[in-house]
Design a protein that fits this description.
Low-confidence stretches: 8-23
Number of helices: 3
CATH class of the largest domain: Mainly Beta
CATH superfamily of the largest domain: Galactose-binding domain-like
CATH topology of the largest domain: Jelly Rolls
Structural class: mainly beta
Helix content: under 10%
Distance between the termini: 41 Å
Strand content: 35-45%
Order of helices and strands: HHEEEEEEEEEEEEEEEEEEEEHEEEEEEE
Shape: globular
Radius of gyration: 23 Å
Number of strands: 27
Mean pLDDT: 90
CATH architecture of the largest domain: Sandwich
Largest sheet: 11 strands, mixed
Length: 399
């Protein structure tokens, strides 16, 4: 996935979000049962942790001017068209108000063969406290007769992505409700599966769960009561980490991490690098790397570091962080994503869900091949906010 293209397309989606919500939904969408079915992967648990891949190929005689779909999932999804990132969601709600996104995918379509693909994941018992769930599922409904050729049903192909496993947080001295880290073994991952020319002939046909039902509409559907997303997609903005605070092995490039500055971690060695964002952020970490067959990589996230030996060793002082700007004489405790390199060029990790952090710790242990770190940064996320005015109390003016 190209991150630059992902951000470009998301900006397009944000710009036209209100237009689609107001003008692109057919009258039947909220008043009748959907033709699309909720689907899942056959013979997989309904409520446990799992990451799943869905795809549908179809042919168009020409590139359309408009091709609108409505999409949702439980717990969450990322949607791609011909390998390009298009949408993520759904906006959080509850079973009685389960949000769906409305997206025009026409800019990503082409004359001839096309592919719509989705990553869907369920965090199971480790899901964030705010994440309501009925069971694992995915649904996509075309807006009109033209788009209904890609409605989710048993013609979709699917599989479980066994490269992913949940990683429970280490000891954290707080009430933790934010969900697990991720363990990803790139040796087990599929490449290019989101593209139209990928061969999915050995994938399973999707299992149909139930028809999609808008809230207030009677039918034979179960579980989710679908409602249109009422807020824009979350902001996604590239965000560079600011500086290296500690490293234990070698001289890093002078401009790393504030600028893209590739470096190599030698074979049969270990490295630990503590990076500082400079302020607390919510972001999807992005690590681009290559080579380093079977190298172990971890990315850990923390708001601040904990005091190692406080003078008073009672419970309260043992769990203090003190001055968040200080890192010397402190210990790192935080949520961790763990990766295993498959040895190829152009590997990229972007977390399924965002993390909150000021400090990011990169730790690497290589085997018989050096690991190339091409880039490491974050993609800031938050509710899109634009400051339209400000009030100056001293001058008694409104700008």
């Amino acid at each position: 996935m190209s991150v630059k293209r992902m951000l470009k397309h998301l900006l397009f989606s944000l710009a036209f979000f209100s237009f689609f919500i107001l003008h692109s939904q057919t009258p039947d969408l909220l008043s009748k049962p959907w033709d699309a079915r909720w689907i899942n992967v056959p013979n997989e648990p309904l409520h446990d942790y799992g990451v799943y891949q869905f795809r549908k190929t179809f042919t168009l005689a020409s590139k359309p001017a408009s091709f609108i779909v409505h999409v949702s999932a439980d717990n969450r999804y990322k949607l791609f068209v011909n390998g390009e990132f298009v949408s993520l969601g759904p906006a959080r709600g509850d079973i009685f108000h389960w949000n769906f996104e409305t997206v025009d995918i026409a800019p990503y379509l082409q004359n001839g063969k096309n592919a719509v693909a989705a990553i869907v994941w369920n965090y199971g018992d480790m899901r964030p406290e705010a994440q309501i769930s009925y069971q694992t599922g995915f649904i996509l409904q075309g807006n009109s007769e033209t788009e209904k050729m890609i409605n989710t049903d048993k013609t979709w192909k699917c599989r479980r992505d066994n490269s992913y496993h949940a990683k429970e947080p280490a000891l954290i001295y707080t009430y933790y409700v934010a969900g697990p880290g991720e363990t990803v073994n790139f040796n087990l991952s599929l490449k290019n599966w989101k593209n139209a020319d990928f061969d999915d002939s050995n994938w399973s046909s999707a299992n149909q769960i139930t028809q999609g039902l808008p809230k207030g509409v009677f039918g034979y559907g179960l579980g989710w009561m679908l409602v249109p997303r009422s807020i824009p997609q979350m902001e996604l903005t590239p965000q560079r980490l600011q500086k290296v605070r500690k490293t234990d092995v070698f001289q890093l490039p002078e401009n790393f991490p504030a600028q893209k500055s590739p470096f190599v971690i030698p074979a049969n060695s270990s490295a630990s690098i503590l990076l500082d964002q400079g302020h607390l952020t919510n972001a999807y970490p992005v690590l681009q790397f290559g080579k380093g067959k079977n190298a172990s990589i971890s990315l850990s996230y923390a708001e601040g570091l904990y005091i190692i030996e406080p003078e008073k060793k009672d419970w309260r002082t043992l769990h203090q962080k003190g001055n968040r700007n200080e890192v010397e004489g402190k210990r790192f405790i935080g949520v961790t994503d763990s990766l295993v390199s498959d040895g190829s060029d152009g590997q990229e990790f972007t977390s399924l869900w965002w993390h909150t952090y000021r400090y990011l710790q990169l730790q690497v242990t290589t085997k018989n091949e050096p690991l190339e770190i091409d880039d490491l940064y974050g993609i800031f996320t938050g509710y899109p906010f634009t400051q339209n005015a400000k009030f100056d109390a001293n001058n008694d003016t409104l700008n």
